[in-house]
Design brief:
Low-confidence stretches: 1-6, 215-234, 237-243
Shape: elongated
Largest sheet: 4 strands, antiparallel
Radius of gyration: 23 Å
Helix content: 40-55%
Number of helices: 12
Distance between the termini: 79 Å
Number of domains: 2
Mean pLDDT: 79
């Protein structure tokens, strides 16, 4: 059997289309560069319409029209818009943490930005759950998926492993104000946790998510630190709400 036996022309159109339909957008674009025949099949509107529907289901319902053409162009334009929006969140976090410290208000602002921009799970997975970004940004993306999008744990864990960031470690440390005892206030209680992103996704310590959520706590001085290997960075800091 020679090489020509494996050419595109030897594949029935329905088989070729099924192969292409199993791919994500980046792989589909790469396959389209292989030949003119694959470029034609990979540019099929039915493939890109399916990708738009999967990634932006709510948006798809608003633009769905049997006469609509160029779903690939729609997908590319929308993706580029999300890339710009994600870059603004990255810049926000980097600017706020330039002195290796990020106030909790800035942490939550980044999450609120993702919510306002209507990021979906695929958007976060493709643009924030990436190994080349800081663990802080991974954590923000993961937190958004868990608490805002309510993505099931098994899907977030799968996304973390696919991006090779599941084992990234971070530590959270916080203080609870000491109780009053016979007119004297006992010293603040120190608490800390060391978790991986996968641990957080699997809710192995729900108290940490409550600390990061901030709305779930009152009168608590919260300081969280993120650690990567020998690199430790203070990422969340807030003052006692009662003061």
């Amino acid at each position: 059997m020679n090489q020509s036996d494996y050419s595109f022309s030897s594949l029935p159109n329905d088989i070729a289309l099924r192969i292409a339909s199993s791919l994500e957008a980046p792989d589909l674009s790469s396959l389209s560069c292989c030949s003119r025949a694959w470029r034609e099949i990979c540019g099929s509107d039915c493939l890109w319409e399916s990708l738009v529907k999967e990634r932006w289901s709510l948006l798809y319902e608003t633009v769905k029209n049997p006469n609509f053409k160029d779903w690939r162009g729609f997908y590319v334009n929308r993706h580029e818009e999300k890339v710009v929006q994600a870059a603004s969140v990255v810049t926000l976090v980097e600017n706020c943490s330039q002195f290796v410290s990020l106030e909790v208000v800035d942490y939550l602002q980044a999450i609120e930005c993702l919510k306002t921009m209507q990021f979906g799970f695929k958007d976060v997975q493709m643009l924030l759950l990436k190994s080349k970004l800081s663990v802080l940004l991974n954590l923000i993306g993961l937190h958004y998926c868990l608490n805002i999008l309510r993505v099931p744990a098994f899907r977030t864990v799968e996304a973390l492993w696919n991006s090779q960031i599941a084992g990234r470690q971070f530590s959270v440390q916080w203080w609870k104000p000491g109780r009053w005892f016979y007119g004297f206030r006992i010293r603040n209680e120190s608490h800390s946790r060391c978790l991986s992103l996968e641990d957080l996704a699997m809710a192995k310590d729900e108290e940490v998510l409550a600390i990061l959520e901030r709305e779930a706590i009152h009168e608590i001085l919260t300081i969280a630190r993120i650690s990567v290997g020998n690199y430790s960075t203070s990422i969340l800091q807030s003052s006692q709400s009662s003061q």
